[in-house]
Design brief:
This protein has 263 residues and is mainly α. It has a domain of 137 residues: Butyryl-CoA Dehydrogenase, subunit A, domain 3 (Up-down Bundle). It is 62% helix and 6% strand. It contains ten helices and five strands, in the order αααααβββαββαααα. The strands form two sheets. It has a three-stranded antiparallel β-sheet with strand order 1-2-3, with no helix packed on it. The protein has a two-stranded antiparallel sheet with strand order 4-5. It is globular, with a radius of gyration of 19 Å. The protein starts with a helix and ends in a 9-residue tail after the last helix.
């Protein structure tokens, strides 16, 4: 797909995600050809769709489609997904109206799951986390430009600038890791990319919360929504801490570190 067509697709997807979410967004994405995009242009469709989910704060069950494609299982199945702490969850819209600690996502805990390969799914959640981090940075940057103290915007204060800069560096580092090809070590590359994206989102949550101050703690502010979402997505398919430890244990057992990128 050429750049102009991709830009038009992104604009259409963004408008759709800003106006709907959940099961309705699943239907809208199906009408926009999500299944065909996933099959024919997987490398560009997954980063685009999941990044936009994070930026807009919407959600859809498209992660199931990515998991099933990798596993070669029937479309429409609902796979159990590993969650932080050795637990398992499934995407269940029947739970969407109930009070949940899972960041507004309709995830239901189950007793156990299967053993699926998850490199593509981890990359997808990584892009979702990066999108959420971008959304938090946008909110904090705008607040810093608008909020005036001592006669000037707080964006001019060095401490505020440092926090925004550190957030941007973390996000762009995660995006670079997610963009690595990883043909030789797909599982390890995806594991490290998901860990980097989770750490970037948590860094964004911490720094952007400090930039916004008290207003960022309120449930009415959009930052609150993105922080909750980032905390849940970090735990989905393994938290950044768990995945980092798993990668380290694997490298120690192997006795060497493979080259993941040509610099």
């Amino acid at each position: 797909m050429d750049p102009d067509s991709l830009a038009l697709l992104e604009d259409g997807l963004r408008k759709t995600m800003l106006s709907t979410s959940g099961a309705e967004l699943d239907k809208a994405l199906a009408e926009l050809g999500w299944a065909e995009m996933l099959a024919d242009m997987h490398e560009s469709a997954v980063p685009l769709v999941f990044r936009l989910l994070g930026e807009t704060g919407s959600h859809a069950s498209v992660l199931n489609d990515v998991v099933l494609l990798t596993a070669g299982r029937e479309e429409g199945d609902t796979p159990a997904l590993p969650y932080a702490g050795g637990t398992w969850v499934v995407w269940d819209y029947a739970q969407a109206g109930q009070s949940s600690a899972l960041g507004g996502l309709p995830l239901r805990r189950v007793e156990e799951g299967g053993h699926l390969r998850l490199p593509d799914a981890r990359r997808a959640v990584g892009w979702w986390l990066v999108g959420s981090a971008r959304a938090m940075l946008t909110l904090a940057r705008q607040h810093a430009l608008d909020r005036v103290q001592f006669g000037r915007p707080i964006a001019g204060f060095q401490a505020v600038r440092h926090r925004l800069a550190e957030t941007l560096v973390a996000i762009e580092g995660a995006e670079a890791t997610l963009s690595l090809p990883g043909e030789d070590n797909p599982d390890l590359t995806a594991l490290l990319a998901k860990a980097a994206a989770g750490k970037a989102a948590l860094t964004a949550a911490k720094h952007c919360q400090q930039v916004l101050g008290g207003i960022g703690f309120t449930a009415e502010h959009d930052l609150h929504h993105h922080i909750e979402r980032a905390l849940v997505l970090d735990g989905l398919l393994g938290s950044s801490k768990e995945l980092t430890r798993r990668a380290g244990a694997g490298l120690r057992a192997r006795g060497s570190a493979p080259r993941l990128a040509v610099l």
